[in-house]
Amino acid sequence: MKYTRLTKEQLEELHPEFITFLATQSIDKKEWDEIKANKPEVAMQEVDVFSDLIWDKALTNVKFIDHFSKNYIFLFKCHSEYLESIIVNTTKDEVDFFTAEGIQWLSENLFSNEVTIQSGKKKVSNNRNEEIFKIIENGGIISKGELYSKLIALINIA
Could you report the per-residue pLDDT of 7-63, keeping only the tens digit for each? Predict the structure, then answer.
């Protein structure tokens, strides 16, 4: 498995797609029920293959990822062959970017000496989607890129 198995809730949401997936494997409902009952390891293998297909499709469409920690914000713009990043860091220990107050503080102090902003670009290794998945696994959240775009505009103006 390249990614992680979809949860029961996710599989329920994707039930029509899973039925279609099984049909492409020439597995009907009766046969699927038999597999689940008599060969649970084969059933889990089918779920794993389906999970990887779903993750691959979803990750291919990811354009932006935001990752927040207490004193850091990592913003990624995902291209096919590289990732662009903006890293915002504060040296002020009491600031917490997980809170609304921390984000408010950042907006008021973005260009102070207590905030560092770095940008970079990293070539994607063999598998773009696997790299994006690792970021998500470590707490990254797929976004529409609003914060990334705002910071790029501010950095270019300043």
Answer: 999 999 999 999 999 999 999 999 999 999 999 999 999 999 999 999 999 999 999
The span from the CA of 128 to the CA of 70, in Å, is 27
In the chain, what are the helix, strand and coil shares in percent, each to the nearest 5?
Answer: 50, 20, 30
Give the whole-angstrom CA distance, residue 140 versus residue 142.
7
What are the structure tokens assigned to 81, written together? 């062959």
Task: Give the pTM.
Answer: 0.84
- Reduced 3-state DSSP string for 24-77: HCCCCHHHHHHHHHHCHHHHHHHHHHHHHHHHHHHHHCCCEEEEECCCEEEEEE
Q: Locate tokens 């102070």: which residue?
A: 112
Residue 89 tokens, joined? 């860091």
Displacement of CA 152 from its chain's centroid (Å): 21
The b-or-e profile of 96-114 (16+ CB within 10 A means b, else e) is: bbeeeebbebbeeebeeee
Contact assessment for residue 128 and residue 62, using Cβ atoms and an 8 Å cutoff: no
